[in-house]
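Anyone else keep sequences and structure tokens together like this?

Example one:
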Amino acid sequence: MLAFPSPAHAEFERASEVRQAAPGSLVPCGFFRYSVRESQFAAYNHCGTTTVRVHVDVRGGGSTNDYHLCVSPGRTQLPGAGPNYLNAYYIGGAGCRSGEQTGHTPH
């Protein structure tokens, strides 16, 4: 039997437009929040096979705080506290450079 490390007492909260990951996966595809003990975090799990660009909605400041982020397949931790994030969603950009972050532009 294989054991996979995971945060102690992790609780996941999925965004309403998240599609399910492959059967047996513990992490949903798309944006999600989770808690470890008393701390809250946010992440984006990309279930595809290429890098893609996602729009990250940050609480407060309207769209001036939002940004676009290129993510690789798998889980990408969003920096800072989970409650600071409202959502993150796919906007295209397959093949972008992983980790590249740009300011919000209309899409």
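And example two:
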Amino acid sequence: MNRPDIAVTGLGMITPVGNDTESTWQGVCAGVSPARTVDELKGCAIDFACVVDGIDLDAAIGGRAAFRMGRYVKLAVLAAREAVTDAGLDPARWDGTRVAVIVGTSSGGSTSLTEQAVVLDRMGAGATSPSAILLTIPNMPAAEIAIQLRATGPSMAPCTACSSGVTALSVARDLLVSGQCDIAIAGATESIVYPVAMAGFARSGAGAQRDGDPAGLCRPFAADRAGLVMGEGAAVMVLERADDARARSAVPRALLVGTGATTDAHHPISPHPSGRIAQAAVQNALRDAGWAAEDVDHVNAHGTATPANDATEAALISRVFPHRPPVTAPKGVLGHCMGAAGAIEAGLTVLTLQRGVVPPIANLDAPAPEFDIDCVTGQPLRQPIRRAVSHSFGFGGHNAVIALQRP
């Protein structure tokens, strides 16, 4: 039996450069990071980040439900609402038993957990929130989206660190292919801009240290790259079998045609120095899509701006794609949105396919001389893009890659 094509029919985002998909796209194409000093991080070794601004999340969620949601949940719910509207679907009219919700996260509500621990220590158990558990457990984005959208099909919360978003999209695709659902709402969310996390990244050596304007600190693939800058946000897609989408006259934004996953099994933070296991994830995605390497017109790189990760990924890209397709790395603008990064970057790849525009890498004039890759710098690159891959390589050695093509 032939495997059905899977269409991306809806897309929703909320990120440090925009509170919806279009403003996020414009912000990423502008190539300027919004990283800034964050008041809540005062006194921390890392006191800056890329944060979601300009929106009252409680007001946007509306009603009493907002009080039981952590920030990471609110971001996911808003992205999901936009994605469903973008897909032209009405939850009041669909068969909820055939709708799946797959939303990943890396740290879940660790911010809320830390806040509640402080309340417990200072004021006692009676002062803690009655929603303390709901504010922290990582399945709540999927659960709240399902509640709001009347989706009673499969619901899951994958966690593969920085690869969680691509893992969620891969699981959603499998559910659609196997016939367990007809619509999948899939993506990821993260919000961990808080002192404990910043201290941890500073101590691990992965986080960039302040050296001038925070907006210029994340420099993917640069010779002087010095570490990641934290970000937050969410991205959600609506996935359907392409035949089902056509039957309701929906116009797909893109087709999800391949996925690949491997595990370095090497180190909790550092990638395997050979890059061969992450490379296998890329090649698995190409094989799944039925593509040769030269079919790929664009690579959306993981590009964390850490010395080891960028070196490993650049070498991988040059080995797999010797024809040097244009490469971008959105973390230069958005920071590292951790568990949400893969979903956001997959969403940006969908937009690149639609619009024939590859966003530039922020803070980069040219890649390090030893990197034989074609990084887009300065201005967006305008050219037709038919096939693209997006890489996500997470802490713990989780590698996940998605292959997307223009319909």
